[in-house]
Specification:
The chain is mainly α. It contains 12 helices and no strands. Helices cover 80% and strands 0% of the residues.
């Protein structure tokens, strides 16, 4: 009887322990998912504005575009700090593997974020055309660099990376530039560019608005083409990405909702309903 009670007590404590662990992991998953989503939506349009910065017709338009993101760009970047901090606190093993194995790639990400901030702050310190032109180029290149690196990280996580028994990533730097990961990176950059143009359409008027309006259709066509290519590539070469959909058909509603959001976004853009277009592009 004592042995039975002892076994029951141990089994109950073990069940409670694992139950708490599952709850904690689920909470951290929720925090990371929310922070990642908010960063993609909020800093996504900042990066998109930067990626298209050099396409502005003159210095005045570039100043207008920077003013559009001026009050929010630094606050939007806080979300990536939450992502990194949440990963460290909730999943330290994954944090160690990711940040040691992708160290060089993530240094490019940090460098891009630093140079973006410096370019925004320094551009207006002098009125010299050469001075402003240099920082405009830095701002655009750094924005594209950050978007591409974020896409490469996501693409490599989807594609998978070699990890040994000690949890260390065994991969050369060139491994991060596989075709599928590059496709994810380019698609991510195109999505941010489209997101940024729609944001600018909400925040500008007059000649600046006419400039942005001419960008939206082209940016949308590029994104849709890349999105369809990425969808086909994922469907054909990454079966693990649709495994849960095959087990639970209700999950097929998610890609259907994404597709409807894209269609709705294009409709809203044609109708110049930029607020709705921004909301729908955020849900893509």
């Amino acid at each position: 009887m004592r042995i039975y009670l002892l076994y029951t007590e141990i089994h109950t404590k073990t069940f409670i322990y694992w139950d708490k662990e599952m709850i904690e992991e689920s909470l951290w998953y929720g925090v990371l998912s929310l922070a990642t989503l908010m960063y993609a939506i909020l800093d996504g349009f900042d990066l998109g504005v930067g990626a298209l910065h050099l396409l502005a017709r003159n210095d005045q338009e570039r100043r207008i575009f920077l003013n559009a993101i001026g009050p929010v760009w630094d606050g939007n970047e806080v979300w990536i700090v939450i992502v990194i901090g949440g990963l460290f606190a909730g999943f330290p093993g994954a944090y160690a593997t990711l940040f040691s194995g992708m160290y060089t790639l993530l240094m490019f990400l940090i460098a891009g974020l630093i140079f973006r901030a410096v370019a925004i702050e320094f551009r207006s310190k002098l009125t010299l055309i050469l001075w402003r032109s240099v920082w405009d180029v830095v701002f655009a290149i750094a924005s594209i660099q950050v978007a591409l690196v974020l896409g490469l990280v996501v693409g490599n996580l989807i594609e998978g990376l070699p990890i040994d028994q000690e949890g260390e990533m065994v991969a050369d730097f060139i491994t991060f530039f596989r075709p599928y990961s590059l496709l994810v990176a380019v698609t991510t950059t195109s999505l941010f560019a489209l997101h940024g143009t729609i944001y600018l359409a909400m925040k500008t008027k007059g000649e600046a608005y006419e400039t942005v309006s001419a960008w939206i259709g082209k940016a949308a066509c590029v994104f849709v083409a890349l999105y369809l290519a990425l969808t086909v590539a994922t469907w054909q070469t990454k079966p693990h990405m649709i495994l849960q959909m095959q087990r639970y058909p209700a999950f097929y509603l998610l890609p259907c909702a994404a597709f409807l959001s894209i269609v709705g976004m294009l409709w809203a853009v044609r109708r110049e309903k930029n607020g709705w277009a921004f909301i729908l592009s955020s849900s893509c």
